[in-house]
């Protein structure tokens, strides 16, 4: 959702010094968006992925990778398969 929200999970608003205010910008994205997040991400809590998906008007079916962490998600077969599907079909039909 944002850099500050990662460091301070109880943060509820965006401050001007937040380097990554993605949660405030995602509603303006006009192209299809694929949200991918590991359920066991130890760096960015899974709730951030859910919030981004819920706020994104052009979100396609997300990929929640059961058991994946922050730095190993690409090791799961469904990651590459879902990415291929997104690029080949969902992006090309937008």
TrEMBL record:
It is a lipid-anchor. Gene3D superfamilies: alpha/beta hydrolase. It comes from the Eukaryota. InterPro entries: AB_hydrolase_fold (IPR029058). One of its GO terms (biological process) is regulation of postsynapse organization. Keywords: Cell membrane, Cell projection, Endosome, Hydrolase, Lipoprotein, Membrane, Palmitate, Postsynaptic cell membrane, Synapse. It catalyses: S-hexadecanoyl-L-cysteinyl-[protein] + H2O = L-cysteinyl-[protein] + hexadecanoate + H(+). GO terms for cellular component: endosome membrane; plasma membrane. It is found in: Cell projection, Dendritic spine; Postsynaptic density membrane; Recycling endosome membrane. Its EC number is 3.1.2.22. GO terms for molecular function: palmitoyl-(protein) hydrolase activity. It is an enzyme of class 3 (hydrolase). The keyword Cell membrane applies. Belongs to the AB hydrolase superfamily. ABHD17 family. This is Alpha/beta hydrolase domain-containing protein 17C. It comes from Haplochromis burtoni (Burton's mouthbrooder).
């Amino acid at each position: 959702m944002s850099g500050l929200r990662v460091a301070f999970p109880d943060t509820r608003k965006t401050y001007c010094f937040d380097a990554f205010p993605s949660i405030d910008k995602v509603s303006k994205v006009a192209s299809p968006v694929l949200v991918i997040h590991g359920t066991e991400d130890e760096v960015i809590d899974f709730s951030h992925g859910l919030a981004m998906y819920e706020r994104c008007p052009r979100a396609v079916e997300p990929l929640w990778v059961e058991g994946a962490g922050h730095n190993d998600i690409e090791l799961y077969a469904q990651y590459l398969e879902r990415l291929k599907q997104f690029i080949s079909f969902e992006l090309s039909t937008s």
